[in-house]
Specification:
With 543 residues, this protein is α/β, with parallel strands linked by helices. It folds into two domains: 124 residues, 2-Layer Sandwich (Chitobiase, domain 2); 370 residues, TIM Barrel. It has 17 helices and 21 strands. Helix 2 runs parallel beside helix 3, helix 4 packs parallel to helix 6 and helix 8 crosses helix 11. The model has no long low-confidence stretch (mean pLDDT 94). The protein binds ligand TNX. Belongs to the glycosyl hydrolase 20 family. Keywords: Glycosidase, Hydrolase, Signal. Its EC number is 3.2.1.52.
C-alpha cells in the first residue's frame, strides 16, 4: 500500500507540474527560482506585519500599499522574536549571504516571510505586492511558495527626456512608481537639451528665465521633413531645487537612484540663447531655444568661461543628486563651429592635437573637454557617464559609456576596461520608436515591438566573461519630441518596460516570451486598466 501510495503521489506531483500553467505566479520580472507547495496563506485585516524596524522603507511601502491599494489595514509591529501565526515577517536577519538586491520569500499557511537587506527587502515586497490583487479588501488568498531571487544586473535603467516636452513632478513620481514596481533602479533624468533647460540653477537665473522657454514648437513629423508648421504657442517649464530634492527623496524611498544628465558640449542651444558668451561666436544674435528637433550646430566653446559655468552648474547638480553617476551627455556634437573658431584652432595647436586615422583634431578637442569635466566630477567623488561618442578622440580615464548607436561603443569600451550601460536603439531600447508597423500614434518612426526588446541580451558574445563584467546593465530611453502628453508617455513605455525589467533582472535561462506575454502579462495589463494607465496592447495578445 505504501509503495502504491508513493507511486500515486509521484504521479500526482508530475501531473500537477504538467498542469502548472503559471509557473512564475504572474510575477514580472520572473524570479530566479520559484517553487510552489500545497496550501495557501490568507491575508486579511487580522494579519500582522512584523518588522525589524517599523520605519524601514520596504516595510512602510508595503504597509501603505496594502492600505491604499488593496484596502487592507494590517497592524504594523516591531518584531520581538516570538513567531506569530498569521503574520508577514520582513527581516534582514539571515540576509548577509544574499547577492546584492537579493531576497528570499516564503509563503506558508501560517506566515509570509521576506528576507533581504536594503533594496533586496524592497524587491521582495514588490514581488509580494504583485500577488495581492488590487482593491480586494477583506481577504486575499496567496498560494504557498518559496522564492529565491536576485538581479542579473546592478544597473536597470529608464530614461525620461523632459526637455523636448516637460513633465510635472507628480507625473515624474508616477514614472518612478512604475519603475519601482518592476525593480528598475536607475532613473536617468535628461534635464537639458536644445529645446529647453529644466533645472533651476541658483547661480545662473537666466537658465530658468530664458533657457527653459521656447517661443513655439514645430508640429507634425519633423524627422520626415514634411512641411514645417508651428503651433505659435510658447512652451516651457522647469523644476525648482526644492522640487528636485523632493523627487530625489521619493525615488530613494523606492531604492531608485536618479542619474541627472546635463548635456555638453552639444545639445546646448537653449543655454546659448541665455548666455551667448559661452558659444564659439558671441557676436551672433540668432541663438534661441530650439523650436524644432534634431541636431544643432551651435555648441559650447571649450573656453575657461564655459568650464567655470559648467563646473558651477555641476556643483549645484551634485548638491541636489547624491548619485555616484553624473551624466554629461557628449552625443551628437557637430564640430563645424569649432572648426571655424579661431579660439578653438589656437587651443588645438596649444594642446598639440592632430588629426589621425580614427579621429579628427576636433574629436580630440571634445575628448579634452570631457576629460576636463571628468576631472572635476571625479574631484567631488563622483563618476561620469557619457553617450558612446565620448569614445571618439579618446575615452576619459574613469568614464562609463552608454552605448546607444548599437553595441559597438559598449563593446569597445568594455575591451578598454571601462564600465558600460547597454542601451542600443537597434535592440528595441529606443522606446520613443513605434511599437508596430501600423495604426500607431505619431512617433519618430521605427517598429520596436515587445518581442524585440524582450529578446535582447546585454552581454555581447564577442566579449570574454571577464570583459562582460564591465556591462553594468541595461536601459531603455524615452525621447519625447513626439510625446507631449502623460498619456502618450504611458502608452510608449507600457508594456515595454516590463520586458526591459526581465532583460535586466532575470537570468537568460529563466526567460520565456510565451510565459511572459501570454501567461503573466495579462494580469499586469488588468492592473494598468484599474489604475487608468494608458498602454499599448501587444500584438500577440488576443490574436
Ligand atoms: C538621438 S540618443 C539622440 C536624441 C534624440 C533621439 C531620438 C542620443 C544620445 N541622442 O537627442 O532625441 O536620437 O530618438
Amino acid at each position: 500500500i505504501f509503495i502504491s501510495l508513493c507511486v500515486f503521489m509521484a504521479f500526482f506531483a508530475a501531473f500537477a507540474d504538467a498542469q502548472d500553467t503559471d509557473p512564475n505566479m504572474g510575477i514580472i520580472p520572473a524570479p530566479v527560482s520559484l517553487k510552489k507547495s500545497p496550501g495557501e496563506f490568507v491575508l486579511s485585516q487580522e494579519t500582522t506585519l512584523l518588522a525589524d524596524s517599523i520605519d524601514n522603507k520596504a516595510v512602510v511601502f508595503l504597509h501603505d500599499y496594502l492600505k491604499n491599494n488593496a484596502n487592507l489595514k494590517v497592524k504594523l509591529q516591531a518584531n520581538t522574536g516570538s513567531v506569530t501565526a498569521n503574520s508577514i515577517v520582513l527581516t534582514s536577519k539571515g540576509a548577509d549571504n544574499l547577492p546584492a538586491g537579493g531576497y528570499t520569500f516564503t509563503i506558508t499557511p501560517q506566515q509570509i516571510t521576506i528576507t533581504g537587506k536594503g533594496a533586496g527587502l524592497f524587491y521582495g515586497v514588490q514581488s509580494l505586492i504583485q500577488l495581492v490583487p488590487a482593491d480586494k479588501g477583506a481577504v486575499a488568498k496567496l498560494p504557498c511558495v518559496q522564492i529565491n531571487d536576485y538581479p542579473r544586473f546592478g544597473y536597470r535603467g529608464l530614461m525620461l527626456d523632459v526637455s523636448r516636452h516637460f513633465f510635472s513632478v507628480e507625473f515624474v513620481k508616477k514614472y518612478i512608481d512604475l519603475m519601482a514596481a518592476y525593480k528598475l533602479n536607475n532613473f536617468h533624468w535628461h534635464l537639458t537639451d536644445d529645446q529647453g533647460w529644466r533645472i533651476e540653477i541658483k547661480k545662473y537665473p537666466k537658465l530658468t528665465q530664458i533657457s527653459s522657454r521656447r517661443a513655439q514648437t514645430v508640429i507634425g513629423n519633423y524627422h520626415d521633413r514634411t512641411p514645417q508648421q508651428f503651433d505659435n504657442t510658447p512652451y516651457g517649464g522647469y523644476y525648482t531645487q526644492d522640487q528636485i530634492r523632493d523627487v530625489v527623496k521619493y525615488a530613494s524611498d523606492r531604492y531608485i537612484n536618479i542619474v541627472p544628465e546635463i548635456e555638453m558640449p552639444g545639445h546646448s542651444e537653449a543655454v546659448l540663447a541665455a548666455y551667448p558668451e559661452l558659444s564659439c561666436d558671441p557676436s551672433l544674435t540668432t541663438y534661441k531655444v530650439a523650436e524644432t528637433w534634431g541636431v544643432f550646430h551651435n555648441i559650447y566653446s571649450p573656453s575657461d568661461k564655459t568650464f567655470s559655468f559648467l563646473q558651477d552648474v555641476l556643483t549645484e547638480v551634485m548638491d541636489l543628486f547624491p548619485s555616484k553617476f553624473i551624466h554629461v551627455g557628449g552625443d551628437e556634437v557637430p564640430k563645424d563651429a569649432w572648426k571655424k573658431s579661431e579660439f578653438c584652432q589656437k587651443l588645438i595647436k596649444k594642446l598639440g592635437l592632430k588629426d589621425d586615422k580614427s579621429s579628427s583634431k576636433e574629436d580630440k578637442l571634445q575628448s579634452y573637454f570631457i576629460q576636463r569635466m571628468e576631472k572635476f566630477v571625479n574631484s567631488k567623488g563622483r563618476s561620469i557617464i557619457g553617450w558612446d561618442e565620448i569614445l571618439e578622440g579618446g575615452l576619459s580615464p574613469n568614464a562609463t559609456v552608454m552605448s546607444w548607436r548599437g553595441e559597438a561603443g559598449g563593446i569597445a569600451a568594455a575591451k578598454q576596461n571601462h564600465n558600460v550601460i547597454m542601451t542600443p536603439g537597434s535592440a528595441g531600447l529606443y522606446i520613443d520608436h513605434a511599437q508596430g508597423k501600423e495604426n500607431e500614434p505619431l512617433s519618430i518612426g521605427g517598429n520596436e515591438p515587445l518581442t524585440k526588446i524582450y529578446s535582447y541580451n546585454p552581454t555581447p558574445a564577442e566579449l570574454s566573461p571577464d570583459q562582460q563584467k564591465y556591462i553594468l546593465g541595461v536601459q531603455a530611453n524615452l525621447w519625447t519630441e513626439y510625446i507631449p502628453t502623460e498619456n502618450k508617455v504611458e502608452y510608449m513605455i507600457l508594456p515595454r518596460i516590463l520586458a526591459l525589467s526581465e532583460v535586466a533582472w532575470t537570468p537568460v535561462a529563466g526567460k520565456n516570451y510565451t510565459d511572459f506575454a501570454d501567461v503573466r502579462l495579462p494580469g499586469h495589463l488588468a492592473w494598468f486598466d484599474k489604475n487608468n494607465f494608458d498602454y499599448r496592447v501587444p500584438a500577440a495578445i488576443g490574436g
